[in-house]
Specification:
six-stranded mixed β-sheet, Rossmann fold, transmembrane helix, 19 helices, ABC transporter transmembrane region fold, four-stranded antiparallel β-sheet, alpha/beta
Length: about 600
């Protein structure tokens, strides 16, 4: 893991605060003199009361002095509470901004990186910097203010206690050093425990999410998987609780040691000051002034070590967050070559393996797809068909070899600019909680009514829309709105087809979107889709060979390699693997 150090991370946070919330930045420094002045006034007020009584000060001037000090103290307390509240509120706003930035990075990261286990673990670890009210991104202003208050408070109060007994000063500094070094130990222990158990949180999040997901609810109930979910959650939660208890125990020990030193400090302070009174070196007024001054000085020393520990621990959490940002920023979305005029696609010696895997999914693929050609990529499940499509769309990047579109290497294009030339429907689709019209039109950046009506008609989705209460303005995903509806699987697929047709991209891809339908229905939809997409490059993916007989060329993939290529007729005449698979499949349904 990349570590930047406390100073660099804190500079990063303060710079972010200064750029995004100038009021919060000013509050950090505004609260310091207030926080130092308040304990001084709290100590000075009883001293002034006692001195006035002992000196028999004239009543009017005595009361005026006490009133002024009390008013100053009241104003200071009011200011301190106001500044603290503003620091907390604005600090949480800051946490919200980082939380939004985290989600923004996660959504825009290269698709390929999301397949890696390290991505999910890095995301989980980065959550520690934004989760909860005590997250470092929300408390950084408070910690900085407390650190500065403690440091400057020590400097300001040091002259007031310079002459007290040396053993008391020694105890105060031993307390500070103990807290400081124990804080270093705690930070290192926290880092070690977090790294050792980062997989546990990922498993817990997975189980918690899947157990309440409506999509899986039927399977969980039908096959009585609730006990498995509960036991698995309990197992991983107990594992997490074990290391949390270890860390909590270490923190408790640190608090116990700190409390012991506070007890010794207060005892020695009382003993020293009472002795000074009995020997006549100080009076009662000086006693009630010095004791809270000593306490504040000692508390600031302890607070200083505590804030240093918070800075170190926060720096660790921030490293996780910034490392995740770096992982997401290291992508291929920047400006690139102009988009191609022609859309010929060529793969040269392309091999691919997933991140953090040694197994090649595709091996030495060589393929040419001409503009406006209709191509079918077929093969059994797991042959590598979808992986090949992801490479063509520049969502995955070749482990070996090169891919060219319009004569230029896809590495030279901006991914953000290249993706719009593709229109795709996948087997699994995401339906956002939006209106049907927005779902179909939004990704294209425009709302053309005639184009919209043609897309829903050509996709066969028009009948579904007419039956809905709000027609195309009907919201989807019932769990998000009372008036929303849920479509059936077939209706969702036609919705996605309408979206692709509306997009009118030059390269169209159907990646088994109708796999849940029967073979005859799939074949009919593919042929209908083919008629609607003339003068476009179309790529059809299926493990059902009969569905793609109409294509100009059929590519058969097996074990990550192209083993046969040609028209349906030529491949059947060849009598090879394609013909064998086609004949086997044709026995399962009629009319093919």
């Amino acid at each position: 893991m990349k570590k930047r150090g406390v100073l660099r991370n804190w500079g990063y946070l303060l710079k972010n605060i200064a750029e995004t919330d100038k009021l919060l930045f000013l509050l950090i420094f505004a609260c310091v003199p207030i926080a130092i002045l308040m304990p001084y006034l709290q100590a000075f007020l009883p001293r002034a009361v006692i001195e006035g009584l002992q000196n028999k000060t004239e009543l009017q001037s005595y009361l005026l002095k006490i009133l002024l000090i009390a008013m100053a103290l009241a104003v200071t307390v009011l200011l301190e509470q106001t500044v603290k509240w503003l620091l907390e509120m604005n600090g949480q706003d800051q946490r919200g901004r980082f939380s939004k930035e985290l989600r923004k990075h996660a959504i825009k990261v290269d698709y390929e990186k999301m397949a890696a286990v390290s991505f999910a673990q890095s995301f989980d670890l980065s959550i520690g910097a934004i989760a909860g009210d005590i997250a470092i991104t929300g408390q950084s202003a408070n910690i900085t203010a407390n650190f500065l208050t403690s440091l400057l408070g020590i400097i300001a109060f040091a002259p007031l206690i310079i002459n007290i007994q040396q053993i008391l000063i020694l105890i105060i500094f031993i307390s500070f050093l103990t807290n400081y070094f124990y804080g270093i130990f705690l930070t290192n222990y926290d880092e070690k425990i977090t790294e050792q158990n980062k997989g546990v949180n990922r498993k817990l999040h997975y189980i918690a999410y899947k157990s309440i997901n409506y999509k899986y609810a039927k399977d969980i109930r039908l096959y009585k998987m609730s006990d498995w979910f509960f036991k698995s959650y309990q197992t991983y939660n107990n594992e997490r609780r074990r290391w949390e208890r270890k860390l909590s125990g270490k923190r408790f020990l640190g608090d116990l040691i700190a409390g012991l030193f506070v007890f010794i400090r207060d005892g020695l302070a009382y003993f020293y000051l009472i002795t000074q009174i009995f020997t006549g070196k100080i009076g009662i007024a000086q006693f009630v002034f010095l004791f809270p001054i000593i306490t504040s000085f000692s508390d600031w020393l302890i607070s200083l070590s505590t804030q240093i520990t918070e800075l170190r621990t926060g720096s660790l959490k921030l490293d996780y967050l910034r490392n995740f940002f770096d992982m997401c920023n290291d992508n291929r979305k920047s400006k690139g070559a102009p988009l191609p005029v022609s859309f010929n696609i060529e793969l040269k010696n392309v091999s691919y393996k997933y991140p953090e895997s040694d197994k090649l999914i595709l091996k030495d693929i060589n393929l040419n797809i001409k503009q406006n050609e209709k191509i079918a990529i077929v093969g059994v499940n797991g042959a590598g068909k979808t992986t090949l499509i992801n490479l063509i769309m520049n969502l995955f990047f070749p482990t070996q070899g090169d891919i060219f579109i319009g004569g230029k290497n896809t590495k030279d294009y901006s991914q953000d600019e290249l993706l719009p030339i593709f229109g795709a429907v996948f087997q699994e689709t995401f339906i956002p909680p939006e209106t049907i019209k927005n779902i179909i039109c939004a990704s294209s950046g425009s709302h053309d009514e005639m184009k919209f009506q043609k897309a829903v008609k050509d996709s066969g989705f028009e009948k579904t829309i007419l039956e809905l209460p709000q027609k195309e303005n009907t919201y989807l995903v019932k769990s998000t709105r009372k008036e929303a509806v849920d479509l059936s699987g077939g209706q969702n697929q036609r919705l996605m087809l309408a979206r692709v047709l509306y997009r009118d991209a030059p390269i169209l891809i159907l990646d088994e979107p109708t796999a849940a339908l029967d073979p005859i229905a799939e074949s009919e939809i593919y042929e209908h889709y083919n008629k609607m997409t003339q003068n476009k490059t179309s790529i059809f993916i299926s493990h059902r060979l009969a569905s793609t007989r109409f294509c100009d060329r059929i590519i058969l993939i097996e074990d990550g390699k192209i083993i046969e290529e040609g028209t349906h007729e030529s491949l059947m005449a060849k009598g090879g693997k394609y013909a064998e698979m086609f004949n086997i499949q044709s026995t399962y349904y009629t009319g093919k």
